[in-house]
Design goal:
heterodimer, A: alpha/beta, 2 domains, three-stranded antiparallel β-sheet, B: two-stranded antiparallel ribbon, two-stranded antiparallel ribbon
Chain lengths: 404, 602
């Protein structure tokens, strides 16, 4: 726990949870002004393998239109449902319109033909590899985002938060991480129980349970004080109602509360579009873009400390299938946005979609390892230089210059 | 063979040296426990927590005799109550083929309804798919993630009044309404309900109706619920407690993951036939049973592994195949020798080559193991210095298992893991060495290894007493046992265990769950334990009843009634302070005891 949190939580304990006047929070914030604010990394997993070729569309390549007679997104400028041009060759899916201003402000970067080098087309294995950060190795016990945290003496109990029912694989490991479905749930619900358990766990001679017990009740107090203050997103941001939007809203709330959040994880499913892909992708990408754009808007200046990265276990076949859908493929697309992201650019070499350029004659080929992207964020954004222990077995990631 | 002996000696040396280097203080493991403490300790460790009366039973029988009986579960009469609880859980008794056929994946139902796939040929599968497919109205071009709509909507099946009862009625009103409906109508009603309504009814439904509700939500979920409920009923009601503990240990050691595709239908058979019969048997038999089980072959991809020189250029959409080392690697690292025991990447590859051809016939249909000689690597292999000559077949894999089962590193690794679960996170090296010696001398006889451990002074020592933090499964099962709760539906317990971080049958990684204390002590998990304690004792979990009126309301007496020892002064103090001068209610006191730091230890 750092000094700011300590001050804040002890002062709150003095005045009683929930009755902290706004001036006190500000004063506490000011008291801590000399200490540098922590950088924050938010990771979003699109489970089910999103069709990257229809997310960031290679409209400059005719072969794309040959491979996808019914599914291809029309060239920019050819009506309502056409791609939104980015650089004359690539364009965004029309549902991603809310992200275009972030791209234009040079804060949103696209990495194409990126993914895991492991050839598996099993959702289960590929998600597992991407979350552990060790493609091809099943027994890795912890996740890359947990290893991205640097061990600290005084740590915030909410430095690593997974917005999911269970603690996500990505965040499991040696460093304490909590899973929170909803900030409201993070407490002892029975009020008589709450006070009694706090007294038991803070007085017990059991060293293991005493240490974590104390931290737990400190975190509960923090969460409750945040909750009591209520939350109105800034800048007129409107989060969509789905789980992704609500998770990002709560992540924004935690970031702005200065409780020591360093990494957050959330996920969104439904991308496995084997049948009748177009309307599903339209709906999913719309919500995805609305949620991300609201987060960017809400954080405003605070975005200077924050980076968001998106990933999905693998891409989908370059060719559409007989059911107006696509099947499991290989390379995919990732987004990164934030204050220190060098955006307004598409990163990665484009392998092309000609028959001989495809991976196993069917999928987009891989030219960037996903660990190059994550590794750069961990090193240059979070400032963790121990990259070899974050991505064991991947000693030499190639940074693309995504981060200033 | 000579080379392997030399290696063996090297392994033994490394193991002992490693232990000598440690400067840990093991003196507490020399300090004896009192007679009463010994009994409580044995119950804490070898069962899923003592029930009222258990201490007296062991005392009367004699501790030694009780342990001996637990080591021979076949001599223990099972509780008829348990059989009654297990009876409705049909999938636990099915062959894997029947399981796959009876609980089709939702994609198959949709594909059939859309005419993209013919009805399955298997009569059981055909009936199961037909039954569900005709009750849904599935549009031609909807995708897999669109929710399926019922063929007949709810408001055409029921009156408005009846729908309101299902939404907002009391448990009894709902049950009465559902019980009065004819079978055929119930099936339509269940399908017509939105999934949220089905979930809400689970707590008030009869076991038969509950299965229908789950089946309509997701057929394969029935298999999962049967597994989880079965495991909990055995842990809570079973008399063969040590066998249940070891079933959990070995399943976890040879972990497979429920949600990996075909494994959903394969796991009930896996636990019943590959794990359960061998929990106190020979380690070599466990290795054989798991290595040749469709569940493990699928989970670690060995079923797709073929000789490397057989790799064909993929034609069309056929994925490329070749040697897959996943099983070979985990077999060495997790199942037998342990990590850093001296094997090399070359050994992993050679082991994988030996197991090429160990595969499954039609895994999605719950197919059996079969050895496919056409894809077996016929070349010579060298595993841990032992040459396996060219031209072999299935026996190449058997030879690998022989080498591994007899290996001193395996004996040490398995002994240590058992001691970490049953004695302490960091067990004394002398104890591990004695257990490993028994392992090697008895050809890997688990019962004998357990006996060595249970007869040791270290097991009944102050170093072991309450040294372990309960895992979520142990915490929740022991709370139910201690309070004498009646469980008519175990899924709410399984869900709680999942929320505490140990989702049953859903550990993704082949490592299984750790038994180390640090793994189970986190903020979210501690809060979860406290919330569970209050919910359980206030009867807020549907299907689980605690009769708190049977429990004392005096805090000291209540603690003793559920923990079979005195609460620590700090815990007692906190409870007394909470009560103030109000009259204590037994529910509150029980909740505080179950959620206390004291109760988290075993």
């Amino acid at each position: 726990m750092n000094r700011r949190i300590f001050l804040k939580s002890s002062a709150m304990a003095m005045v009683g949870v929930g009755s902290t006047p706004a001036w006190l929070s500000r004063a506490l914030y000011a008291a801590d002004a000399p200490s540098p604010r922590k950088k924050i990394l938010v990771a979003i997993f699109q489970r089910g393998a999103v069709d990257g070729l229809n997310v960031v569309v290679p409209h400059g390549e005719q072969r794309y239109y040959d491979l996808r007679p019914t599914l291809a997104i029309a060239k920019p400028g050819s009506g309502n449902d056409s791609a939104i041009d980015l650089d004359g060759f690539f364009g965004l899916h029309p549902a991603l319109k809310p992200l275009k201003p972030i791209y234009d402000a040079n804060r949103l970067a696209v990495v194409h033909a990126v993914g895991s080098p492991d050839p598996t087309r099993s959702h289960f294995d590929a998600q597992d590899y991407m979350e552990s950060g060790t493609p091809g190795r099943k027994a890795t016990a912890d996740g890359w985002l947990n290893r991205a945290l640097t061990p600290e003496q005084k740590k915030s109990p909410v430095r690593a938060v997974s917005f999911s029912p269970d603690l996500a694989r990505t965040l499991r490991g040696r460093n304490e991480a909590v899973s929170i479905n909803n900030l409201n749930d993070f407490q002892v619900r029975d009020t008589r129980g709450a006070a009694t358990f706090e007294s038991m766990y803070s007085s017990t001679m059991d060293k293991v349970l005493n240490g974590t017990g104390r931290e737990t009740f400190e975190a509960v107090k923090l969460m409750q004080s945040i909750q009591k203050q209520g939350y109105t997103p800034a800048g007129g941001a409107r989060y969509p109602n789905g789980r992704l939007g609500q998770s990002l809203k709560q992540i924004a709330q935690l970031i702005k509360s200065d409780v020591g959040l360093e990494v957050a994880f959330t996920d969104v499913g439904g991308w496995d579009t084997h049948v009748n892909e177009a309307p599903q992708l339209n709906r999913l990408l719309g919500e995805f873009a609305d949620a991300l754009a609201a987060f960017y808007q809400d954080l405003g200046d605070r975005m200077a400390d924050v980076s968001v990265v998106t990933m999905s276990e693998f891409g989908r076949t370059a060719r559409e299938n007989g059911n107006r859908g696509t099947d499991h493929g290989h390379a995919n697309v990732m987004f990164a946005f934030g204050g220190d992201v060098q955006g307004g650019k598409i990163y990665g070499d484009w392998p092309g979609l000609a028959e001989e350029q495809l991976y196993e004659n069917r999928d987009l080929n891989l030219t960037t390892d996903f660990r190059d992207v994550l590794g750069e964020l961990v090193t240059r954004h979070l400032g963790n230089r121990q990259i070899a222990s974050v991505f064991p077995g991947y000693a030499d990631p190639k940074f693309r210059g995504l981060i200033a | 063979m000579r080379k392997s002996l030399a290696l063996t000696a090297a392994f033994l040396c490394a193991a002992t040296l490693g232990a000598k280097k440690k400067t840990d203080d093991f003196s507490l493991f020399q300090k004896k426990l009192s007679k009463d403490e010994q009994i409580l300790h044995a119950l804490d460790r070898l069962t899923f927590g003592p029930r009222p009366g258990d201490v007296a039973t062991v005392k009367k029988m004699g501790l030694k005799k009780w342990i001996d009986l637990q080591l021979h579960p076949e001599r223990i009469k099972e509780d008829p109550e348990l059989d009654k609880k297990l009876a409705p859980l049909e999938s636990l008794r099915m062959s894997q083929r029947e399981t796959a056929a009876s609980y089709p994946p939702p994609q198959l139902i949709r594909a059939v309804a859309q005419g993209r796939q013919p009805l399955p040929e298997d009569p059981v599968a055909r009936a199961a798919v037909e039954r569900l497919a005709r009750r849904f109205k599935i549009k031609k071009n909807e995708g897999d993630s669109d929710p399926m709509q019922p063929a007949v909507p709810l408001d055409q099946l029921l009156t408005r009044e009846q729908i309101r009862t299902l939404r907002t009625g009391t448990r009894d009103q709902k049950r009465e309404l559902l019980d009065a409906m004819p079978e055929e109508k119930i099936d339509d009603v269940v399908v017509a309900m939105p999934p949220g309504m089905r979930n809400q009814l689970l707590g008030s439904a009869s076991p038969v109706l509950r299965r229908k509700l789950v089946l309509a939500n997701a057929p394969q979920q029935v298999i999962f619920q049967d597994l989880a409920e079965g495991k909990l009923y055995r842990a809570i009601y079973g008399n063969r407690q040590l066998a249940e503990q070891l079933d959990d240990f070995w399943f976890n050691h040879f972990n497979v993951f429920f949600d990996k595709g075909a494994d959903r239908a394969l796991i009930p058979t896996y636990e019943r036939e590959a794990i359960r019969p061998h929990v106190l048997g020979k380690f070599r038999d466990l290795l054989e049973a798991t290595a040749s089980s469709p569940a493990m072959l699928f989970y670690l991809d060995n079923w797709q592994s073929v000789a490397p020189n057989l790799v064909r250029r993929p034609a069309g959409n056929r994925p490329q195949r070749g040697l897959n080392e996943n099983y070979g690697r985990e077999l060495l690292e997790l199942h037998t020798l342990g990590v850093d025991s001296g094997y090399t990447q070359k050994d992993v590859t050679e082991v994988a080559r030996c197991f090429t051809g160990w595969t499954i016939r039609n895994p999605q249909q719950g197919g059996d193991f079969f050895y496919n000689d056409r894809v077996h690597d016929k070349g010579e292999k060298v595993v841990l210095g032992v040459t396996i000559p060219a031209g072999g077949g299935r026996e190449d894999g058997e030879k690998v298992l022989d080498i591994l089962a007899k290996h001193p590193a395996t004996a040490h690794f398995i002994s240590k893991k058992l001691a970490q679960r049953f004695v302490a996170d960091n067990p004394p090296p002398e104890l591990i060495d004695r257990m490993a010696k028994t392992f090697l001398a008895t050809d890997g006889d688990v019962r004998q290894v357990m006996k060595t451990m249970l007869e040791s002074k270290e097991f009944f020592s102050a170093g072991a007493y309450h040294a372990k933090v309960k895992t979520p499964l142990e915490m929740i099962a022991s709370a139910v046992r201690a309070t004498g709760a009646q469980v008519d539906y175990a899924m709410p317990l399984a869900n709680q265990i999942g929320q505490l971080g140990e989702p049953l049958y859903r550990k993704i990684e082949p490592t299984g769950y750790s038994s180390a204390n640090a793994e189970w002590v986190s903020s979210a998990s501690l809060l979860g334990r406290m919330n569970f304690a209050m919910a359980l004792t206030q009867n807020k979990l549907p299907g689980i009843k605690v009769d708190a009126s049977r429990l004392p309301d005096d805090p000291s007496k209540a603690a003793k009634a559920m923990m079979f020892r005195d609460a620590t002064p700090q815990t007692k103090q906190a409870i007394l302070k909470a009560l103030g001068d109000k009259k204590p209610t037994p529910e509150l006191v029980a909740g505080l005891v179950i959620g206390s730091p004291d109760f988290q230890r075993r």
